[in-house]
Every structure is written in structure tokens, then in C-alpha cells.
């Protein structure tokens, strides 16, 4: 197999790439490691996961290799402007994802309070921004243009985490909800979502 994705046994920062492979119908080796740090950390290019092994090269930085795959599989936009818009949407979603990791995932104390504050403040600010950018670039359940992009998959993945914290948090964000519906109803993605393992993160 030309592609191997190395990560922990979780969704985390690897799931976007798994979703891209699924939507494209491209096979990949889904390596899930448990011996951490062990030799895995020492062998990872930046001492972090995930990394993608492609053409014999280990590539770190999940967003960078997800973008490369999206381009290869025609999910990154069909011209320069569409590609830039797709990147804008991806970055706006990543701001929400990074805020979640920093404030919630890494919190060690008073987790309930941290989650409540995150949901009533940070998450809403980021979701508003995402809804705004979808209003500028989106169309009929797609975040950019009128076909599936990696930004749609990123939005689905990151909002899935937020929904586990508050099931009705997207009720005021119809454009985000419409994109989730598009992703869930994509036949290849739906098959993957049905078969993927349940993990703790
Ligand atoms: N910007 C990097 C962040 C990678 C990252 O923070 N990885 C975490 C897991 S999600 C990690 O390897 N943590 C363990 C460590 O840094 O030792 C990416 O998106 O790939």
C-alpha cells in the first residue's frame, strides 16, 4: 500500500486524513500505535503523531499532509481561488479544534467547569466564525463551491467532538448542520463511519 498513517488508537488529529482516504475510496494502512513514547516517538519526524508515510518519506503535520492528499484526490478546489477559500475554511475550523485541545482536552482539573466555559464562550465564537465563512463561500451543503471538499470533512470531524459535549450546540448554525448532512450522506464516508472503531478520543 503506498500510504501508511501512523497515530494512536484514536480519532484526534488523524481522523481528517482517514475521512479523506474514505471519501476518495483510496486504501491506506491505518497504523495505530500503543507503545508511546518508546521507539515510536524517536522514529517520528517531529517526535509527534500523526505522520503519513508516503513514497518512503515520513511526513509530519496533519493539516499539511491532509491538504496534499485532498489535492491528489480532487477535494481541494478546482482553481487557485477555490483552493484558497477551502484553506480559509479549514483554518477557521482548525482554530476551533486547537482551542478544544488546548482548553478542554489538556485540562487536568475542574474538567466540568472548563467544558462549560468552553461551550458558552470559545466554542460559540469559533462556530459563529465558521457559520460566517460558510455564508460567504458555501453553497447548498458544501463549504466551498458545489462539490465535496476536505473542508467539509474537517468540519464534520471537529463538530462531532463538540457535539459529544453538547448535543444541541449546532442548533443555531444551520449551515454547519447542512454540511454535516452532506458528509454523513456521502456513500463512501457513511460506510467508513459505520465501520470505524469506537475509541476514547
Ligand atoms: N500540528 C501537529 C500537532 C501534532 C500533535 O500535537 N500531536 C500530539 C497528539 S494529537 C502528540 O504527538 N502528542 C505527544 C507528544 O507531543 O509527545 C499536527 O497537526 O500534526
From TrEMBL:
GST N-terminal domain boundaries = 1-77
Which PROSITE patterns does its entry note? Answer: GST_CTER, GST_NTER
Provide the leader sequence positions.
none
Outline the extent of the GST C-terminal domain: 79-201
Q: Which UniProt keywords apply?
A: Eye lens protein, Transferase
Q: Which InterPro entries match?
A: Glutathione-S-Trfase_C-like (IPR010987), Glutathione-S-Trfase_C_sf (IPR036282), Glutathione_S-Trfase (IPR040079), Glutathione_S-Trfase_N (IPR004045), GST_C (IPR004046), GST_superfamily (IPR050213), Thioredoxin-like_sf (IPR036249)
Q: What is its EC number?
A: 2.5.1.18
Q: Which GO molecular function terms does the record list? A: glutathione transferase activity; structural constituent of eye lens
Q: What chemistry does it catalyse, as a reaction equation? A: RX + glutathione = an S-substituted glutathione + a halide anion + H(+)
GO terms (BP aspect)? glutathione metabolic process
Protein origin, superkingdom: Eukaryota
State the family named in the UniProt similarity comment for this chain. Answer: Belongs to the GST superfamily.
Q: What is the official name of this protein in its record?
A: glutathione transferase
Q: Please report the organism this UniProt entry assigns to the protein.
A: Brachionus koreanus
Amino acid at each position: 500500500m503506498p500510504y501508511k498513517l501512523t497515530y494512536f488508537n484514536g480519532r484526534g488529529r488523524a481522523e481528517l486524513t482517514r475521512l479523506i482516504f474514505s471519501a476518495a475510496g483510496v486504501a491506506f494502512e491505518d497504523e495505530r500505535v500503543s507503545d508511546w513514547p518508546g521507539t515510536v516517538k524517536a522514529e517520528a519526524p517531529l517526535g509527534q503523531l500523526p505522520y503519513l508515510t508516503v513514497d518512503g518519506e515520513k511526513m509530519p503535520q496533519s493539516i499539511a499532509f491532509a491538504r496534499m492528499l485532498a489535492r491528489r484526490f480532487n477535494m481541494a478546489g478546482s482553481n487557485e481561488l477555490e483552493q484558497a477559500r477551502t484553506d480559509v475554511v479549514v483554518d477557521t475550523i482548525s482554530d476551533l479544534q486547537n482551542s478544544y485541545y488546548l482548553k478542554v482536552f489538556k485540562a487536568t482539573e475542574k474538567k466540568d467547569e472548563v467544558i462549560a466555559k468552553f461551550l458558552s464562550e470559545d466554542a460559540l465564537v469559533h462556530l459563529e466564525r465558521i457559520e460566517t465563512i460558510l455564508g460567504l463561500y458555501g453553497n447548498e451543503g458544501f463549504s466551498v463551491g458545489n462539490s465535496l471538499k476536505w473542508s467539509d470533512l474537517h468540519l464534520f470531524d471537529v463538530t462531532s467532538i463538540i457535539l459529544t459535549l453538547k448535543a444541541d450546540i449546532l442548533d443555531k448554525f444551520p449551515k454547519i448542520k447542512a454540511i454535516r448532512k452532506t458528509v454523513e450522506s456521502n456513500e463512501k464516508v457513511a460506510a467508513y463511519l459505520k465501520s470505524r472503531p469506537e475509541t476514547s478520543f
